[in-house]
Amino acid sequence: MIEERKSSITFSDDAIRRFLLRRLAAREQSAFEQTLMADDDLESRVRLAEVALADDYARGLLTGNEERQFRESFLVTDERKQMLGVSETLNRRFRSSVESASLIQNVKTIFDFRQPVWRYAFAALILLLVFSTVWRKIKEQIVVGPITPKRVVVPKPSATQSPIVAHHPTTSPIPNHVEESTSPPDHQIATPAVVLDGNNSVGNPFELKLRDGNIDSLRAQIVLGENHSTSYRVELWDSKGESLFTINAVAARDGKVIFDIPSRNLSAGEYLIRLKAVEGFTSEETQSYYFRITR
Fold it and tell me: Last residue of a domain, which of 66, 83, 100?
């Protein structure tokens, strides 16, 4: 197993990409195919590279020659065609969400109450309301006129009647105080964490071993570089090229992006996290991070 892992590391990410586009030499192509049949780790890396290549094509990041090789050499199976359809659908949804957010930002810019014009208008509205209220009070006093006090009529005295003795109970029952007992909170299991940075590539994924138990979620923490955006779109993919988890906007704080992954996505295997930077509501460079879960 160790020898197989070492042999898979000899193939770089660029070599895997050239293999998918049929750009390897005949000798390299044969050696790659033989290793791929015997190395599960290399097979997982190829799966993730297929997803990344399909996504780059959907976003228009390939050159003219790479696009031609992609159509002729990569799209040869129904599974890869379906993978490309998923990437194109996600790219369209992301573009529409960015356009909607841009429209909302434009509306907020127009109705910015911090501008002096809106402040003066708001102050004028308050003065108008105060003036209308005072004028209404003055108008009511003019129409009604002086108020004539009512004459109080004193009733004539009458014969005093004997008081009726009321039979009231001398004591009243004291209500019992009922205390509701509260059960102590259940013991919570600490949330496991995955800490990723730029060094966690396909060949060097972050490895996390989970124990069997009641785990609600997995805390993911990604350490960004010096030049980073203020908001990111987060995508989680498995080694089969299936999208498992998406968050449209996650704010970066203190150079980190932190979010939780639901427990239904915590099976053993290899995963890819993509960060699509969003700053000023326009998409920027995509960053990829890899991790592995074992039990």
Answer: 83
Structure tokens that stand for 127 in this block:
């003065």
Same domain assignment for residues 136 and 201: no
Give the pair of three-digit tokens for residue 68: 């031609």
Query: How confident is the model over 224-266, as pLDDT tens digits?
Result: 877 778 888 889 888 888 888 788 878 888 889 898 988 776 7
- Amino acid letter for position 12: S
Provide the whole-model pTM: 0.37
Distances (CA, A) of 97 to 248, 281, 283: 8, 9, 11
Residue 234 φ then ψ, to 5°: -110, 130
Q: How confident is the model at residue 99 (pLDDT cuts 50, 70, 90)?
A: low
What DSSP assignment string belongs to 40-85? Answer: HHHHHHHHHHHHHHHHHHHTT-S-HHHHHHIIIII--SHHHHHHHH
Count Cα neighbours of 37 within 13 Å in the Cβ-side half-sphere.
5
In this structure, what are the phi and psi dihedrals at residue 111, rounded to the nearest 5 degrees? -100, 50
CATH classification of the domain holding 262: 2.60.40.2550
The answer on 135 and 51 residing in a single domain is no
Task: Report the length, in residues, of the chain.
Answer: 295
Residue type, position 267, single letter = S
Give me the number of domains the chain comprises. 3
Domain match, 267 and 197 both: yes
The 3-state DSSP class for residue 127 equals: helix
* Percent of all residues in the chain with a pLDDT value above 90, rounded to a whole number: 4
Burial readout 186-216 (b: 16 or more C-beta within 10 A, e: otherwise)? eeeeeebebebeeebebbebbebeeeeeeee
Measure CA 47 to chain center: 25
Confidence (pLDDT) at 45: 92
Say whether both 53 and 139 belong to one domain. Answer: no
In a domain, 275, yes or no: yes
